[in-house]
Amino acid sequence: MDIYFLRHASAGEAKLNPAQDEQRPLDKLGIEQSHNVGRALAALNVAVDAIVSSPLRRAMQTATVVANQIRYEDKIVTDAALRSEATYEQFQDLLRRFSGKDAILVVGHDPSLTEFLNQLLLSEAAAPPVIELKKGAIAKVEKAERKPAVLKWYMTPKVVRSLQQASANSSRPKTVSK
To answer: Does a structural domain hold residue 127?
Structure first.
């Protein structure tokens, strides 16, 4: 199974009231980051069988924008296993529930999403993290049954934005065929 790990995009400063913080929307930068990562996934011809998001507003908004960009037409599933306070055991349970799928996109928060990614890759909870998921970052992990997970690629929002700008401003000369 291919697992795409996407940390929700920028949503400004956290609110002190937890109930209000759960409803915190993406900010202008977060909307741009979501569109950029969605376009990057579309350019890579990424197709997923399921999109699973944290129930928090900013994660759902990120998932929705990306879903639209990659032309995902099914319902986005919400799951508490992608909340910031979720445990790796909850995440493993989520993976078991979707084990029949070829590819899934999970959208969540830190610190849990970074921890889940690193634990899946390193197979040990005590290992120091090797990858930090920034807001709006995406990673592709290939997980085969009874084999170690393999990181296929990882893109920060800065890399995604740079690729978007480079493709829009290509310096390659245009040719005319007669």
So the answer is: yes
One-character DSSP codes across the chain:
-EEEEEE-----SPPSSHHHHHTPPP-HHHHHHHHHHHHHHHHTT---SEEEE-SSHHHHHHHHHHHHHTT--SPPEE-GGGSTT--HHHHHHHHHHTTT-SEEEEEE-TTHHHHHHHHHHHS-TTSPPS----TT-EEEEE--TTS--EEEEEE-HHHHHHHHHHHHT--SPP----
In CATH, what number is assigned to the domain containing residue 133?
3.40.50.1240
Domain count, the chain: 1
Lowest mean pLDDT among 35-39, 123-127, 133-137: 123-127
Q: What is the pTM of this model?
A: 0.90
The 10s digit of each residue's pLDDT in 60-82 is 999 999 999 999 999 999 999 99
